[in-house]
Design a protein that fits this description.
2 copies of one chain form a homodimer. By secondary structure, chain A is an alpha/beta fold. Chain A is built from 9 helices and 14 strands. The first copy, chain A, is globular and about 45 Å long. The mean pLDDT of chain A is about 90.
């Protein structure tokens, strides 16, 4: 019996006021314990443009220089996170907005420089998460809402992938809860045919995953999500569900939409 | 015996890296339970200028329009708050950054429009503070760090005076703790002669306060602080201490510097 829902919502929902409002209503309506992890959306780029902060990308990955970590701390850790909290409060959900630096819940290490210097990007020190304050907040009836930021313990905030934060929290909390980890994204699930939005694969287990990889039907965009998902499953998380924000919160007890990974 | 320190630090310290570093080291070194409330400093004005957000003032008070509440949510609730948290973590203090919207700790009402429309400014609903999650965080050994923001419970964040947040929290927590409320500012304390920085009045009680008012020796700037201080004392707070950030944290058990109000 699932008793903790950990839900990651991406920028495509954050950026769309109508989608976001529906999502927050559905999220608030989930009974029991839940955690939200949000991405940033395009607002950081827009405000960065206004501030003259140029987004640098290498191989499609944003480089987080000093100006950019301040930008995402403002926009993800401040504007987006606190607006989500205020809106969830209005929807009757007792949200509390956090980063991984808060209560030292998610220690990270600045990504070592190899071919690429990613700048102020954090790799989660997954074995060192501090779940005690998080469990205290859950037991007190509050709903933690995480911005995609961590810290190095030496005073430096770090930009961190929201999918990874979600899976790391799910794994760390699996010792105390039966966790369903839900990734909301812009598709109805993992697709057998990227051109057909209805071609949702309902179930993926390790054998099916190997077969899909061999058939090369999976797009590059979905592979990191699936890697995160299997890493979670292999480390104690009960279920991972991937699908559209409109569908995956409607079925919090019995899975009826999206792709279930187990 | 004081068992909770509630400390408000203003923009003059936030804006000065050397002062701030000293302050955070001293704050982190205070044993036992403590809460920090911070102001914003000039960085909001600087970033606002870059974003083309004009600060409007009426009678010396900033008007918080829609662009400005987003700005202060980013800068106070995001950048300043999370940098303080990361730096306190580095100093060994298990800080957790919050606004009044988080866990609905500080409900507020948008200030009613009379002569002046202050915009998205919140007046604290002092009788309705939710201290249970705050006490849970204190008992769990974490140190709450508040940005000067509240919310109306209907989804709107509100810009709120940090001194008022500090006194409201101090009063609300007086049912469970013996609270010393400390206001750090740029002077050594309340001055008998505003031109003489050493003319610190060491003790103010209601009788002395009336006498000082009659003598008209108090400047306009200090009067709201003293009103907040007496409001706190009259509502259960054990002690209020006003003085320079360098002095007032050094004497957390026996008062030796600054102005004590009781």
């Amino acid at each position: 019996m699932i008793d903790l829902f950990i839900i990651k919502v991406g920028g495509n929902v954050i950026d769309n006021p109508v989608l976001l409002q529906d999502f927050l209503q559905q999220f608030a309506a989930i009974p029991g314990k839940k955690i939200l992890i949000h991405g940033g959306g395009k607002i950081a780029t827009r405000i960065g443009d206004q501030l003259g902060i140029v987004s640098n990308y290498v191989d499609g990955r944003r480089i987080t220089d000093a100006a950019t970590i301040d930008l995402v701390t403002m926009v993800y850790g401040g504007l987006v996170n606190k607006q989500l909290v205020a809106q969830l409060q209005a929807a009757g959900c007792n949200a509390i907005g956090l980063t991984g630096a808060d209560a030292n819940i998610i220690p990270a290490v600045k990504r070592p420089v190899k071919e690429i210097d990613y700048g102020f990007v954090g790799d989660v020190r997954a074995a060192e998460l501090h779940t005690a304050p998080l469990k205290a907040l859950l037991e007190a009836g509050t709903t933690p809402v995480f911005a995609p930021l961590t810290h190095d313990g030496k005073g430096q905030l770090l930009n961190t992938n929201a999918d990874t934060i979600a899976s790391s929290l799910a794994i760390a909390l699996s010792d105390s809860y039966q966790v369903r980890l839900i990734y909301c994204f812009e598709k109805k699930g993992v697709l057998r045919d990227p051109a057909d939005d209805e071609a949702v694969i309902n179930l993926i287990n390790p054998a099916i995953y190997q077969q899909l990889l061999a058939e090369k039907v999976l797009t590059d965009g979905i592979l990191p999500k699936l890697d995160n998902a299997f890493s979670a499953i292999n480390n104690g998380v009960k279920e991972v569900l991937i699908g559209h924000a409109k569908d995956v919160l409607n079925n919090t007890t019995t899975q009826v939409a999206g792709t279930l990974i187990c």
